[in-house]
Specification:
The complex is a heterotrimer of chains A (453), B (300) and C (294).
Chain A lengths: L1 H20 L20 H9 L2 E6 L6 H10 L3 E6 L5 H13 L6 E5 L3 H5 L21 H7 L8 E14 H7 L7 H14 L13 H10 L5 E3 L4 E4 L4 H16 L10 H8 L5 E5 L2 H8 L7 E5 L12 E9 L6 H13 L1 H9 L8 H4 L2 H4 L11 H9 L12 H18 L3 H18 L3 E3 L1
Parallel strand pairs in A: 1-2, 1-3, 6-10
Antiparallel strand pairs in A: 3-9, 4-7, 4-8, 4-9, 5-6
Helix pairs in contact in A: 3-14, 10-18, 18-19
Chain B lengths: L24 H24 L4 H6 L11 H47 L5 H11 L4 H14 L7 H7 L3 H14 L2 H9 L4 H30 L2 H6 L8 H11 L9 H31 L7
Helix pairs in contact in B: 1-12, 3-6, 3-7, 3-9, 3-12, 4-7, 7-9, 9-12, 11-12
Chain C lengths: L7 H32 L2 E4 L3 E4 L3 H7 L2 H34 L5 H9 L6 H12 L5 H8 L13 H26 L3 H9 L4 H29 L3 H6 L13 H10 L4 H27 L4
The chains are: A alpha/beta (453), B mainly alpha (300), C mainly alpha (294).
Chain lengths: 453, 300, 294
């Protein structure tokens, strides 16, 4: 009892001292444009990999311990503690609070592509160039490398998996109503009207009103460039330009007509709707096929995969939704071991193959996308179609130059309350795009950015 | 504060002779109708925990499917991620029991102090504590985190237990309770006998306060057991998670690329299992209430 | 009533008894709160770092329409949900206390059990029951040939949330009031019986007045609970993102400011103002109800 009481006293005293001596917690330090640090020599690397070291790795990939074990087998001196600190947003929240407090952050962390700028703006990621990361460039599909590199060529992370977008469709429903898989968005709209008229209980697709990720992927496909950083302080925001408006008018129109659904996704309702055939297609990413197979078992054998419909006939473009990277946190005490771990995990042939075939992460490495044992799998759920091959083909059609804002949480939340809301309420989506633009601009300016529109 | 007549609350069942001891079928039926409402969601949970992933998404929610998968689901829950669910339950029990015991004791000491000792600053301090009930919990979590990070308490059980020890409402309850349940003349008599204040507290007062103590214990137990936000912020090590954060984590995995909806039966079954210990605690502690609060319906 | 005789030794003993609670209270509540207050005087930007801005955050909050909207919404929630919940709790407590129930112990536990259900789980369950197409409520409505109510739509969402909170806490309030009823001195009943009062008269003129302090307390806590509403809307957000926005309740707004907008300082100011609102409302309620009792 007294023991704990002294502890409380100590804590209270420490807190008081901390209040007196601290000036508002570690703020955001601006990442200045620094020249790259000198490369670390191979001797130093060898030395580091032989030194007993403990790394902490935050990730939400299930059972990734197997891949980590491969690394530990190769470098017995290094022990990696795998921690699932939450998936996506909860993990980022923890990471940010840990960074703010200056303790408790991991060495290596799983970060989705779109969040990289959000963490580089607060100068929390380690540039991996000194550790030989530039040499890895050719192993990865072009656009993924564009996603993980900074304005001055910094390498912020190593791609782990991707989500190039395609279309999963219900062949049985299409056949029943005599619909061909649409190759353009015009055909898609016509099919949506035809199908819903024929069967009011079925919608050609569901554009989830809470899924900014899918929207951004479709915008990416349409050639949008919503966020561009001219410098660390200058940001160009254009989420209501011509391309965005084209997208808004198209989808907003279909929603108003009532021929597509806008149910929130990944909810009970949505799972049930997929199982019960309420949606005839799911515009999804390369991780979608496996996900669907385990979540809509009722519909096994009825689905097929195809590329997204195109804006112009004969084009072949796609966008990306989801996928992650491994990044190294700047505060790590073992930068060499951490950087080499991130590299090994995502480039070692055995490790990458395991991730693709056991955790079903869609690979970003060219070697694996071309590997017959991966590409030629014929899942029964898709009637024996080589789905991986379809998406491997799509992966090459994703544009390189799509950028993300340095405050992604805010733009997503604002999208939910403007564009997403307009989809759910069947109100004016193009006008909602203007509101979205307005809200992002206001926020960016309040955070000290110079905004060009 | 209160002007009710102070009476000695004894630990024997003193049932007031209430009029109208006839059992009423009509009233009972009405209450049973309400009971259906209160138990319906739990019935859904029970039904859902017996289903496979496929049946969860395709069969009617309020009735059992053909496959009865409860045993399999429970097995899966405890087998997932090297049996981490069992750890979560143990963590939750540890946090809840230590916090509740500590909080109830602090409240009993403090409530008695405020109720029976007219020291200087009594009212002002008590007012301060009452005011603290109004503080939005979200406002405290982040500064608490930053302070704990400085003293190295983040990601330890203390990060959950220490903040849970403060229960202003419990203090209020114990003060009100002590005012009524601890007669001044008993205290005076003990003092005249030459007993020290602490001895009086342990030997006389605690016995009188027992029902109130158990009530505070129970409420803190529930509050800590159900706490979600604080551990979410404070803990990053899954082997320290309480069951609420663990379940929410699993629920989140249903949306991960390459993850699977097979997690959903885990969430549902895990939710069901997480409720059971508290219900059992209620049942066990009911005995104690009966001593002070006399069981309803047992009236002579 | 506390005795007003205060010997120095008695003073010291009093301090000794409250010391453990007060030490933890200061360390775990006052210090973090002071720190939050300190934070609320600064502004931290992604570009430009931290600057001292005095009361700017408070000025901004007082003219923030989203915050005001949230406060009005929880006030509406309070007026809608609290009377219903307390009335139910009171009815249940009186019914249990009347001694006229069969299975009273089972009923008492059954109504109290939802209180033991974590809000994470409660939101999961009700969210499923509310499902607009495949949820049981909608399906039952369909079987009866009625239009399914859109329980997750903008019009009914507040009611749906009120239902979850009522479900969670009616039993809790029942127990508080029931405990207060058990503490009613037997003499009062005897006196009522001598006067020839029946069960209803006794309930009205003996039990209700005796419940006053407990009801007041339950009411104050409901004020606090309503104005701090957070868990339920936050967990239901995924089901109806276009209805429950980031400023749906003031607490949700503070949370989203801190974690989504990375604006810890403004979030602290918003939380402080919310605390003030709660204090003001609680005080008003207390004053209104204790006026006639001196």
């Amino acid at each position: 009892m007294t023991m704990t009481r002294t502890r409380w006293l100590a804590a209270a005293a420490a807190a008081t001292l901390f209040l007196a001596g601290c000036s508002g917690g570690g703020g955001a330090r601006q990442a200045a444009d620094q020249p790259p640090a000198a490369a670390v020599s191979q001797a130093d690397i060898d030395q580091a990999m032989r030194t007993p070291t403990e790394l902490t790795f935050w990730t939400w990939v299930p059972d990734i311990g197997k891949e980590v074990a491969l690394f530990e087998k190769k470098y017995p001196a290094i022990k990696v503690n795998v921690v699932n600190a939450g998936q996506g947003e909860p993990q980022y929240t923890k990471l940010r609070t840990a960074l703010k407090a200056g303790s408790g952050a991991p060495d290596v962390v799983q970060i989705e592509f779109q969040y990289i700028p959000t963490f580089t703006i607060i100068d929390s990621l380690l540039d991996l160039r000194p550790y030989g990361a530039e040499a890895l460039k050719d192993k990865f599909v072009d656009w993924t490398w564009g996603q993980v590199t900074g304005k001055n060529g910094e390498v912020w992370a190593i791609p782990q998996d991707t989500g190039p977008m395609g279309m999963l469709y219900r062949k049985d429903i299409f056949d029943k109503h005599g619909i061909e898989p649409p190759r353009t968005w015009d055909e898609f709209a016509a099919a949506a009207r035809k199908l819903h008229a024929a069967d009011p209980g079925v919608y050609l697709t569901n554009l989830a009103s809470n899924q900014n990720g899918a929207w951004m992927g479709l915008l990416w496909q349409a050639g949008g460039k919503p966020f561009q950083m001219a410098s660390a302080q200058d940001i160009d925001v254009s989420v209501n330009d011509e391309v965005s408006k084209k997208l808004g008018t198209y989808w907003g129109g279909l929603v108003k007509e009532g021929v597509i659904a806008t149910d929130p996704d990944f909810t009970d309702q949505w799972y049930q709707a997929l199982n019960k055939g309420k949606y005839a297609t799911w515009l999804t990413a390369a991780w979608g096929p496996v996900f669907l197979a385990s979540n809509a078992k009722e519909t096994s054998g009825k689905w097929r995969a195809a590329p997204l419909p195109q804006w112009a006939a004969g084009e072949n473009k796609s966008g990306n939704w989801g996928g992650s990277t491994s990044a190294v946190i700047k505060s790590t005490k073992n930068p060499i071991a951490a950087a080499k771990f991130a590299e090994f995990l995502n480039t070692d042939p055995e490790s990458t193959k395991m991730m693709a075939t056991e955790q079903f992460l869609f690979p970003p490495t060219k070697a694996l996308l071309d590997d017959p044992s991966f590409a030629e799998q014929k899942p029964e759920f898709y009637g024996g179609q080589t789905v991986n091959q379809v998406f491997a083909g799509i992966s090459d059609t994703v544009d390189k130059g799509f950028g993300w804002p340095p405050f992604l949480d805010q733009t997503v939340s604002d999208w939910d309350e403007t564009v997403g809301k307009s989809l759910a309420d069947k109100s004016d989506t193009p006008a909602a795009l203007d509101q979205w633009q307005q809200r992002i601009t206001t926020y960016a300016e309040s955070q000290g950015f110079k905004v060009a529109q | 504060m209160t002007t009710t007549v102070t009476t000695t609350v004894t630990t024997t069942v003193t049932a007031p002779a209430a009029p109208g001891r006839r059992r009423s079928p009509l009233l009972t039926l009405g209450m049973l109708a309400f009971l259906v409402y209160f138990l319906l969601p739990l019935f859904w949970l029970l039904v859902a925990a017996t289903k496979t992933t496929g049946d969860l998404f395709s069969s009617f929610g309020l009735w059992f499917a053909d496959d009865f998968a409860l045993a399999g689901n429970i097995g899966d829950v405890f087998a997932a991620e090297d049996g981490v669910y069992g750890r979560w339950l143990l963590n939750t029990a540890l946090y809840a029991v230590v916090s509740a015991g500590g909080a109830a004791l602090l409240c009993a000491l403090g409530g008695y102090g405020f109720a029976k000792f007219g020291f200087r600053g009594n009212r002002a301090l008590f007012g301060l504590v009452l005011g603290a009930i109004m503080v939005p919990s979200t406002a405290l979590a982040i500064p608490t985190y930053l302070i704990f990070a400085q003293v190295g308490l983040v990601n330890t059980p203390w990060a959950i237990i220490l903040p849970s020890l403060v229960n202003p409402f419990g203090l209020y309850l114990m003060r009100v309770y002590a005012e009524d349940a601890v007669p001044d003349d008993i205290l005076e008599a003990a003092r005249i006998d030459g007993a020290g204040e602490l001895r009086i507290f342990w030997q006389v007062v605690m016995r009188l306060l027992a029902p109130g103590f158990v009530t505070v214990l129970l409420f803190t137990l529930v509050a800590t057991w159900n706490n979600y936000f604080l551990p979410l912020i404070m803990l990053s090590n899954p082997s320290l998670y309480p069951v609420t954060v663990g379940l929410a984590n699993w629920a989140g995995q249903a949306t991960v690329a390459g993850g699977s909806g097979d997690v959903i039966p885990l969430v549902v079954t895990g939710s069901l299992l997480s409720i059971i210990p508290l219900v059992v605690a209620f049942l066990l502690l009911q005995r104690y209430w009966q001593s002070g609060l006399a069981a309803g319906g047992v009236k002579q | 009533m506390t005795s007003t005789r205060t010997a120095p030794r008695r003073q010291a003993a009093g301090h000794l008894f409250i010391a453990p609670f007060m030490i933890v209270f200061v360390a775990m509540l006052v210090v973090p709160l002071a720190y939050a207050g300190y934070l609320s005087l600064f502004r931290e930007q992604l570009i430009g770092g931290t600057t001292f801005v005095g009361l700017d955050n408070y000025v901004r909050a007082l003219t923030d329409e989203r915050l005001l909207g949230g406060v009005l919404r929880v006030a509406e929630f309070f007026l809608l949900q609290v009377p219903l919940m307390l009335l139910l709790g009171l009815l249940f407590a009186l019914a249990l206390d009347s001694g006229m129930l069969w299975l009273s112990r089972f009923i008492r536990l059954g109504i109290f059990v939802p209180y033991a259900v974590p809000s994470v789980v409660a939101a999961l369950m009700w969210g499923y029951l509310y499902g607009p197409e495949f949820g049981p409520i909608a399906q039952l409505a369909g079987t009866l040939g009625l239009p399914a109510p859109d329980l997750l739509g903008g019009d009914l969402m507040l009611g749906s949330l009120a239902n979850i909170v009522t479900w969670e806490f009616a039993g809790y309030n029942m127990i508080i009031l029931y405990a207060a009823l058990r503490a009613v001195p037997a003499e009062l009943y005897e006196a009522a019986a001598v006067d020839g009062a029946g069960a209803w008269r006794t309930a009205w003129s003996v039990k209700l007045p005796a419940l006053r302090p407990a009801l007041l307390m339950a009411l104050i806590f409901s004020v606090i609970g309503s104005f701090q509403l957070f868990n339920e809307p936050q967990l239901m957000q995924r089901l109806a993102p276009s209805v429950i926005d980031s400023a749906y309740t003031p607490n949700l707004y503070a949370y989203s400011l801190a974690f989504t907008s990375q604006d810890l300082n403004y979030a602290a100011a918003v939380s402080f103002l919310l605390g003030l609102v709660i204090v003001a409302v609680s005080y008003t309620v207390q004053l209104a109800l204790t006026r006639r009792r001196t």
